[in-house]
Design brief:
There is one protein chain. The protein is an alpha/beta fold and 433 residues long. It is built from ten helices and 36 strands. The protein has two domains: 234 residues, Spore Coat Polysaccharide Biosynthesis Protein SpsA, Chain A; 173 residues, UDP N-Acetylglucosamine Acyltransferase, domain 1 (3 Solenoid). The termini are far apart. The chain binds uridine-diphosphate-N-acetylglucosamine and calcium ion (CA).
Length: 433
């Protein structure tokens, strides 16, 4: 085993090539396959994130079908894009990256990952990199053992446990089809072996494509070793080829995300009915009740109560002890400490202070048909039931809005003010509030 420092260095000497040129015919979509989403992020973003979490900095993506769309989506990321004009197979896709690989002199290991296999874990990426280096093998393949190996490539091992070849399902004999160990489509190659081997691939197979996995045979013939690292959690190898696969990926992500939060001290009362986007952060001792949907970059601090039947959307922050209850939607808003909005509300583009009570049925009207505006509700305010607060407007500290009032835009409620009616009028100011 090598030291942490060696490990970090290994990651720096590695480039990740992500194959993302394919069309994804079976999704029947106008959109590029890798831009379909699961758990709130594109398939390709999940792969990129796993690579980055593993500490690999250099990423090269092979794009082809709808390439401009894909490049645009990742315009802010440091990714080298390489174009594959004709989809001649995974071997050809990697071949397109050779001039880039040669240019990156300090790189000696090349990870190859599929842009349509979003569930790969960073730990598996690290394992492949370490295994390839430690065994000095030409390649380490990430494999999975499946009850139903379907149309994945089959791993054929030799008697010493190393990998002899990978056979595509369509080219496999009956005996080979019976093998349950499959190729995940993720590999870590020795750079020089990869570059040399790519020239020896042919299209003589059932699909008339250059198969990347055929490299294994080439390496073995030359006396080099090929190893496998097998995943424990088979969801990791799931490749997305259909809408059904997309739904399976979503389920697998949800399971993983829910577990992660529970392990971090969050109570999920009924995980099966709770949806949490991969970008959500939740602090310990928060309780999420059933039928809750949390999407986008949402931050929930400790001791909060969320749900049942709640929707939290992009850009929402719940401070310690906030409570958001049934049939309440919160979008791009900050909810202060111990503030409660427990029933039937829409809160959008709103900044709410601490210890505010939002009465049942309150709506912050943030959109006038053209633009969105901000509502501010300061500490200690009491918003009566069924109020409409029309932004831009501010409700001051410890102010009260009577039940059913409509606070109109620009008519700020002063600190300690009490307003009622439609439109809301100031009737008094509280003393010693
Ligand atoms: C591939 C593997 C198979 C493995 C499976 C895992 C080959 C020949 N087979 O099969 O052994 O079990 O992945 O999911 O590699 N791509 C390109 N350019 C191309 C062709 C493909 O960029 O010319 C990309 C696709 O966009 C996709 C990835 O490569 O992201 C895999 O290609 P795909 O055609 O889906 O391969 P599979 O048939 O699934
Ligand atoms: Ca595939």
């Amino acid at each position: 085993m090598c030291s942490t420092k060696d490990r970090e260095q290994n990651m720096k000497n590695t480039v990740a090539v992500i194959l993302a040129a394919g069309e994804g015919t079976r999704l029947k979509s106008a959109k590029a396959k890798v831009l379909h989403k699961a758990a709130g992020q594109t398939l390709l973003a999940h792969v990129v994130n796993a690579v980055r979490r593993a500490g690999v900095e250099k990423i090269c993506a092979v794009v082809g079908h709808k390439k401009e769309e894909v490049k645009k989506e990742f315009a802010n990321e440091e990714i080298e894009f390489v174009f594959q004009k004709e989809l001649l197979g995974t071997g050809d896709a990697v071949k397109r990256t050779v001039s880039y690989l040669k240019k990156e002199k300090e790189i000696d290991q090349v990870l190859v990952l599929c842009g349509d296999a979003p569930l790969i874990r960073s730990e598996s990426i690290e394992d492949m990199i370490q295994s390839q280096r430690e065994n000095e093998s030409a390649c380490t393949v990430l494999t999975g053992i499946l009850d139903n190996p379907a149309s994945y490539g089959r791993i054929i091992r030799s008697s010493d446990g190393s990998i002899e070849k990978i056979v595509e399902y369509k080219d496999a004999t009956e005996k080979e089809q019976a093998v349950q160990e499959i190729n995940s489509g993720a590999y870590c190659f020795d750079k020089n072996a990869l570059i040399k081997g790519l020239n020896q691939l042919s299209q003589e197979n059932a699909q008339k494509e250059y198969y990347l996995p055929d490299l294994i045979k080439v390496f073995v013939q030359e006396g080099a070793r090929v190893d496998g690292v097998t995943v424990n959690d088979v969801s990791e190898v799931l490749g997305i080829n259909s809408r059904m696969d997309l739904a399976l990926a979503e389920k697998a992500f949800q399971k993983r995300i829910n577990l992660f939060h529970m392990e971090n001290g969050v109570t999920l009362m009924d995980p099966d009915t709770i949806y949490i986007d991969s970008r959500v952060t939740i602090e310990p001792d928060t309780i999420i009740y059933p039928f809750t949907y949390i999407e986008g970059e949402v931050k929930i601090k400790k001791n909060c109560h969320v749900g049942p039947f709640t929707q939290l959307r992009q850009g929402t922050l719940l401070e310690d002890g906030a409570e958001i209850g049934n049939f309440t939607e919160v979008k791009k808003s900050k909810v202060g400490k111990n503030t409660k909005a427990k029933h039937l509300s829409y809160i959008g583009d709103t900044v709410i202070g601490d210890k505010v009570n939002i009465g049942a049925g309150t709506i912050t009207a943030n959109y006038d048909g053209k633009a969105k505006y901000v509502t501010i509700i300061e500490d200690g305010a009491f918003i009566g039931s069924n109020c409409t607060i029309v932004a831009p407007v501010k409700v001051g500290k410890n102010a009260t809005t009577g039940a059913g009032s409509v606070v109109t835009k620009g008519h700020d409620v002063p600190d300690n003010g009490v307003v009622i009616g439609v439109p809301a009028k100031l009737i008094k100011k509280k003393v010693n509030a």
